[in-house]
């Protein structure tokens, strides 16, 4: 009887092993590793860069007012912000290019040593917008106009430079990236003493037109305009290409 039980257990183990490694008509796998999914060919990445002169300036600006009451702080902020908005539109900034990015009403507190607690001493109203300046040569004049209009309530946090339509520049960068990938693949094929075939896979990296931001101090109104230099920006595009290896 004991031998019969041992024989049955042995047969069950054999059947279990055959079920795991037996032919299924598909790729042989160990765990989650596919032994037949190895990438073939020559895989390379290419990069293309194009230097561009910006034609758009984006200002991060707004108003910050503080007073003993919410109503007083809000009144001051509203009056100053209306003047800032007028200065923007009077200098050629379209209303569609002005967007509110942040608005808040916060308590202003200080620590009372005698009472050992925070006490409210006032309220702060902050209203920030971004303004897209399409006439980039007027950026300096617009900054000065905004500073004069908002007075001591003015806050200018940043200025950024970008390209309104980067499509033609990315077309040029794409050509350079593909040529760069081809040159790398040809060199690898030569070094490996194989013959390079046609591309079997091409993938392009995500496109994010760069906006170059620079900190901007609050300029005081002056006869001479605030100096602004947009400089140049670099658009970069990457591709990944797989080339077949010919026999």
Mean pLDDT: 82
Provide the low-confidence segments as ranges. 1-38, 216-223
Q: Main β-sheet, in a few words?
A: 5 strands, antiparallel
Order of helices and strands: HEEEEHEEHEHEEE
Structural class: alpha+beta
Distance between the termini: 63 Å
Spatial sequence of strands, sheet with the most strands: 5-6-4-7-9
Q: Determine Rg (CA atoms, Å).
A: 33 Å
What topology emerges from the helices and strands here?
Blueprint: H1 2-21, E1 29-30, E2 33-34, E3 42-52, E4 56-67, H2 70-90, E5 98-112, E6 117-133, H3 139-150, E7 154-162, H4 167-192, E8 195-204, E9 212-215, E10 233-246
Antiparallel strand pairs: 1-2, 3-10, 4-6, 4-7, 5-6, 7-9, 8-10
Helix pairs in contact: 2-3
Key structural traits:
247 residues, alpha+beta, Translation Initiation Factor IF3, Alpha-Beta Plaits, 2 domains, 5-stranded antiparallel sheet, 3-stranded antiparallel sheet, 4 helices, 10 strands, disordered N terminus
Folded structure, characterized:
- It is a single chain.
- 32% of the residues lie in helices and 39% in strands.
- With 247 residues, the chain is of the alpha+beta class.
- It has helices spanning 2-21, 70-90, 139-150, 167-192, and strands at residues 29-30, 33-34, 42-52, 56-67, 98-112, 117-133, 154-162, 195-204, 212-215, 233-246.
- A hairpin with a 4-residue loop joins strand 5 (98-112) and strand 6 (117-133).
- It is built from 4 helices and 10 strands; from the N terminus they run αββββαββαβαβββ.
- The strands form 3 sheets. A 5-stranded antiparallel sheet has the order 5-6-4-7-9, with helices on one face. The protein has a 3-stranded antiparallel sheet with strand order 3-10-8.
